[in-house]
Amino acid sequence: MRLRSQEFFGVVQVVDAALPAEHVQRHRPFTRAAVTGCRAQRLVRGLILAGLVPAVILTISNLAAAYLVAIRRGYPAGAFPGWDAVWRSLAAALPGLAVVAIIIVGILSGIFTATESAAVAVIYALALTVFLYRSMSWEGFLEAAAKSVKTTGVVLLLIGVSSTFGYLIALYEVAEITGRALAGISSEPWVIFLLVNLLLFFLGTFLDMAPTILICTPIFLPICAQYGMSPVQFGMLMLINCALGLNTPPVGTTQFVGCAIGGVSIGHVMRTIWPFYGALVATLMLVTYVPAFSLALPNLFLK
pTM to 2 decimals? Predict the structure, then answer.
């Protein structure tokens, strides 16, 4: 059965290529998560549900890390503004947060495909910006449209290249060779998963998220599946490794942007970021070795 992606847009960053190898002829890769055809619609819903528990764990871990850092450095405690201020801030944010609700609820309920939810969310966000927030001019709209076209072009180019790359991977049996190399080190699943994590993290420090997903999924998914990991769990593993890579030089796109906004140097950030790396790594280990953290909700709601 050959999977052909007919709808694409980069809303949720997971992988259509995470379909089981038996569903895709020679595990042909195809994109970031929302780049999905009709057969992958169930997988997209599963990936969204799978990310909820790890997201909560990651949030709690980062909050704990931030609290410990604040205590250690003696940051002064701020005054609580009161619940009235909290509710006012929440009410002001609700129209914008509805964009997330439209995407997630639309996909999970089956009302929209991933692509359709993206289109509806874009229309809603545009109307919100123009009529409620009144913060977008015609020039700003043209600039945003130009950036969107550029980003879409890059993603489509990556998809095209990845198709050729996937063919070469199948032709030269790269996944099989890599699997045999890892099996030569150990036959224990926990060791194989640890090695895959290390390789994904290393590659993620040099590649952006889209190339990492497109290049690494057809290589490492069959290997992890051979040792009992489901495609949905592998998708979560891939995304957390990408998050680590995006915050690690020499590429470290997210870290560079954050440093530019905050006006601090990369060196200073790298000396102080380790507690937050620890939060990411702890969540990654839980997702890797405790399948229930990523599979409980998909198994519960998508039977």
Answer: 0.70
